[in-house]
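Q: Two folds, back to back.
A: First:
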Amino acid sequence: MPERLSLTRAARLIGVTRGMLQKKIQQGELMTFEGKVAISDLATAYPAARIEDNSTLERFTRIKDDAFAHRVRERILPDPEVLLARIETLTRELVSLKSEVEQKRVLLHRISMEIAAADVGGAASAKHTLSTLGLILREQELVPLQPDTSLLIQNHFLRIMTAQIRLLPSNHEFLIEGNDTILDAALRSGLSLDYGCSSGNCGLCKAKIVSGETKKIRYSDFTLTEAEKADGYILLCAHTAITDLVIEATEAGGTRGIPLQHIVARVKTVQELSETLMLLHLQTPRSSRLRFLAGQRVTLMIGDNALDAAIASCPCDDRNLQFHLPKAVLSGSTMPTLKPGDSVTLEGPRGDFVLSEESQRPLLFIAWGTGFAPIKSLIEHAMALNAAESISLYWINESQWGHYMHNLCRSWSDALDNFRYAPLIAASEPELKRTLDGIASEVRDLGKHDIYVAGPKTWAEIIAKYLNGSGLPMTQLLLDYL
């Protein structure tokens, strides 16, 4: 039987998104068996894939690290003991496979000998049948067992450097690399596992290991009972994976699964985005990170002022929170001037402007002005999930100066083959409708997309009315009013 890979590992191996693989499957260009693809079929579908050519994967990894505001860090090897354990596991598998191959070769030889003996004294028809079978078996012995050596080598290397985690009951999958804990890897992959302090004190990230081996790499104060340990429970914030794992773990089931939180964060930086906007970068304590879904909002308590603000960063880096705020608000007469180190209290998250993670439709985002803030969070989350077949961003402003993160959007478009970015200008309702006509003409079939629109209520409602009139089902349209 050919070696088969999960879609998560196959996508990583080739350097494409899961969504792009799923599209090939839907089009009949790639076959699956029990949700997995054979390496031989993968090599046929992507004939240009070679171990030497990792440019797509490297570009995708780089843009994720740069664009998601992840902490700056080197890609380091796993813990030596973890690496050794993975090599030992793969070695055992290799020995087992070689033994199986040798047994089959012996079997083929014996069958060939039996057929040759029967061929000597059998009837004409039997002789013909046996001769044919013997020819087929001899030809089979000459067929190379591993025609896709390049992908096989790359896959074994990937298995040493990473482990794959599958969550139950959702069947969500992600890869863990370096010295990441299971919790950190899940969050970086865009998944919303249940957790609290993330430092081994509260026990909320307790989960059951169904299969596979783990290693504790961080100290934890929370104590599991002996019965829990015997049943395979661990703290995800304190353990990493030695081998591929299957885990029973609780995930947030939409916005209702995210609790309302009160957190005191510190100002890390305050930077100018444009003549009218500022970027506020807050950092939460390590033991009290904000759990939220991309696209949600919080209330910022700055002095005696309460300010409703969309989070403009990805949940995959839940300590570092970004907000795009008007200068006029931050510099108002009743608002204290913020500087690095100042305290800001967060209350939230709130809102239902979040991704439909189970949908496999292409994603189309339309941002008007500062509606880009929650859209940015959604896009970064979609990239972290690595599941969207394609992503399109249309950012509309009254002038070209309104695209205050134009270079970031261009970097997404340059680095990702399945990302489309278009900065657009519309200063009036007639211009907006002509702009929407252009989008519809370019996209062609809006009804095949999930569309997210964010901006001032007046403009967002005009866009929503246009999309509904174009045949887009209401279930595939989500709005966020500023």
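A: Second:
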Amino acid sequence: MPSARQGSIRLFRFAGIDLFLHWSWFLVAAYEIQSRQGHYSSVTWNVLEYLALFLIVMLHEFGHALACRQVGGTANQIVLWPLGGVAYVDPPPRAGATLWSIAAGPLVNVVLAPVLFVMLILGRSSGWAQAMPDLYKLLGTVLTINVVLLVFNMLPIYPLDGGQILRSLLWFVLGRARSLMVATILGFVGVAGFFALAFWKQSLWYGAISVFMLMNCWGGLQHAQALLRLAKLPRREGYSCPRCKTAPPLGDFWKCGHCGQAFDTFQTRAVCPRCAAQFPMTKCFDCGGLHPITDWMVPAYPAC
């Protein structure tokens, strides 16, 4: 995925979320606007059409980010780029929280669809097709763009929203790791279909989308394998992550950033046994959260 720090321009901040625009967006915008000349009476309408696409994708990604924050997750960056948008969301590692964070994006498109449809109907009844044909055509095109984006995103192919929603639903039944494993395996099947479509259509655009999905499926598969290995490890009693409430694994899984020594941070109280470096924050391998080791301690309640 693109990084907000690599080749992107910060546009603005809303509700604590920074919106970035990748530089390649301008190249694709110029190409798309040029290729659509003749569709309207003026190129200005082609520009407005592409800006409408930008707005729809932006609202979709803000849907993800705001929903993630609503359930207590972290979401502070959105990057818009030629293949769509990426909201950098980190919801709490719970099936329901993840499901809402993912589903909120397509729900934005669901809400937009009837609004745009009603505007199109009102425009037709008001005679816009004859009086303002460019505006009427733009409304119809924007409605089509919104519906196409919704349908595409809801395909049950990881990492599209549909694939991630499927994973979240499976999470309730199969657990965190196995649900991701199943979703990514199904994603590979979908990616194969997209590669076949790209070859059949001789489309570089479909090819680029296929490569993007393949890379994310591979990353998701590796993450699922890591989660499965992590789930099999013995756990330390008396401690739990303040965020996901999971007990930490037993063993030398933490590494000193100063001398490279691997050690069990809960056994040494967050102090490297080799160089005596002290670490103010301890990472949870289950959810990625960082917390002081004192916050991990489970209070001991006296027996009644």
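Q: And?
A: The mean pLDDT is 89.
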